[in-house]
Amino acid sequence: MTAVLEALGLLFQPGIVQTVVLGAALLGGLAGALGAFAVLRQQSLLGDALSHATLPGVCLGFLVAGSRDLGAILLGAFLAGGLAALSIMLITRATRLKTDAALGIVLSVFFAAGVVLLTVAQGQPGAAQAGLSTFLFGQAAAILRTDLWIMSGVAALAAGTLAALWKEVKLVTFDPDYARALGLPVLLIEGVVTLLIALAIVVGLQLAGVILMVALLIAPAAAARQWVRSLGAMVWLSAGLGAAAGITGALISATGRGLSTGPVVVLVASALVLASMLLAPERGLIWRWGRAARARRGIAGRRVLAAFHGLAEAHDDPAYPTEEGMLTTLIGRPGPGVMERLERDGMIRRVDHPPETTRHWELTERGHDRAKRDQGGRP
Amino acid sequence: MQDQPLHEPQFALHVEDLTVTYGAQPALWDIDLDIPPGVMAAVVGPNGSGKSTLLKSVLGLIRPVAGHVRIFGRPIAQGRGRVGYVPQRSAVDWDFPTTVLDVVTMGLYARIGWLRRPGRAHRDQAMAALAELGMQDFADRQISQLSGGQQQRVFIARALVQQADLYLLDEPLAAVDATTERIIMDLLKRLRDQGRTIVVVHHDLTTVRRYFDWMVMLNVRIIGQGPVAQVFTAENLRAAYGGQLALIEGGAVDPADPHP
């Protein structure tokens, strides 16, 4: 508890924790908003391929600049990501390979080149201080105040672009062929969205690293999809969940000694996905289990009513008292709560049938009506 | 751009020497096709005969290796405003988070223009189109909750708001219920009677004569085109469907006597 208060205290004073929390919030929000489009275009893996593919660019940026110059490293990462995106497009167009195969090839080739270059770069003087390998998993503590400005700039660019091209981006995401038939420049719009995703990945590398960055794109969007009914709501909620995961993760890692921020943020985001998969109304698993259980109880109840109705007709006595054993012989055990529910709904009522001491029921008028309606096959 | 002289403007759709290939495999071979304005045309042919490819090439979604297409005498880039397109239902992810009204409004996006959002008037147009298809009560429904027939009607409403002169529909009657089929065909007939041109990729040979007045029979090449009575012959059916003909003979169409 005191640790949490301590962390919250750090949040309000300028310092490394505040910088990291702000950075994680910005990055989570940015990646979350753009991730919505990656998820809906069913291109989640594109983000993964792009982020892995930035590694050779990071190393080349370092080698060319000769030091840990963030500008050079991010530029290298961006160019490598762009080259990867282009390669994926060319492979799918020029060969018979499907997108998933192209993504797999580009991801592994670029990442392998990155690892080789990393080995080369680490032989260079100054590489140890540069801590190039932290780009693999991210190192939040390396984030500087000035980096926050870069992140804010990219976030503003993304927000402005999405606001200006909102309906075009929506249509291209939903139905690209129809968008093309309307005369929209689909390739250009898709390119702009992919470019924004690549920018988000590049500015997120320091915090999340090339391997985990994709989770910040996909997890908030996957969680948000469970709760919303429109694209606008999905993008906002995804951004909000991403930012929340960023803040929570950064604070948790600030309280625990030696927990690195990126992976903790990813774990928090994954917890949000799990909760959304289970709890969301209509789409959530628990809601659907509940609906299935209700449907089962409904069917069991109808079978009870049908059995009672049949026995009453056979005895030519609408108030015929059916004994429990008779019911289970006819249709088996009705299941827990079924009889109680029928009683509560006024379909059946308990009656005594001396000298027998077992449970008996008779159908109410309402129960007879319902049973007759079900016989007619109507719901 | 507008200065280019019109080429064959007497036809709603004019296709000349069109060849499309997927790899080395020709999907369409040397297609010459003319569809006059104001007809309701069926494009029929076996699976893989290039029916969808033909529509997509007309719309410029696929780049042909040879040939050209004209819409009322103009290239597609200048004729888009006059063409409405209904893709196959399976072309999109129906779990996309949006409403029926929103999808129909998409048909107006080109007309609304860049940087502007749909307004009250656009909403009213979309509602009117939905009403034409009996879907007005579904306007605020999530598209993930629609049945197949309702999805198809939403797609047709989206094309309807385009106020096009030439409509291209890809299998609009595939796997829809009888009510939907009747609603769609009634609407298409109304459009035709207003002078619009309707081109429908169609798979059900038993309804061709009842629904259509023009016909294109296709199997990579053009087998026949013209008024249904001239094209719907035993000879053409045999040429288009070949070995599958036994299937047709066993069905409702008697190729030996297609004009009973």
Detailed description of the structure:
The complex is a heterodimer of chains A (379) and B (260). With 379 residues, chain A is mainly alpha-helical. Chain A has two domains: 2-279, Orthogonal Bundle (ABC transporter involved in vitamin B12 uptake, BtuC); 287-375, Orthogonal Bundle (Arc Repressor Mutant, subunit A), CATH 1.10.10. Chain A has 17 helices and three strands. Chain A has helices spanning 2-11, 16-40, 44-65, 70-94, 99-122, 127-130, 134-137, 145-164, 166-174, 176-181, 186-225, 231-255, 261-279, 285-314, 324-331, 338-344, 365-375; strands spanning 322-323, 348-351, 360-363. A three-stranded antiparallel β-sheet of chain A has the order 1-3-2. Chain A is elongated, with a radius of gyration of 30 Å. The mean pLDDT of chain A is 90. Chain B has helices spanning 51-58, 76-79, 100-105, 109-112, 120-132, 148-160, 178-193, 208-211, 228-231, 234-241, 245-250, and strands at 13-22, 25-35, 40-44, 66-71, 83-86, 166-170, 197-201, 214-219, 221-227. The N and C termini of chain B lie far apart (51 Å). Chain B has eleven helices and nine strands. In chain B, the strands form two sheets. Chain B has a six-stranded mixed β-sheet with strand order 5-6-7-3-8-9, sandwiched between helices. Chain B is globular, with a radius of gyration of 19 Å. In chain B, strand 8 (214-219) and strand 9 (221-227) form a beta hairpin. Chain A binds chain B through residues 40, 42, 96, 164-168, 170-171, 173-175, 177-184, 225, 228-231, 233-234, and chain B through 23, 56, 59-61, 77, 80, 83, 85, 87, 91-93, 96-99, 102-103, 106-107, 109-110, 112, 114-115, 117-118, 142, 158, 162.
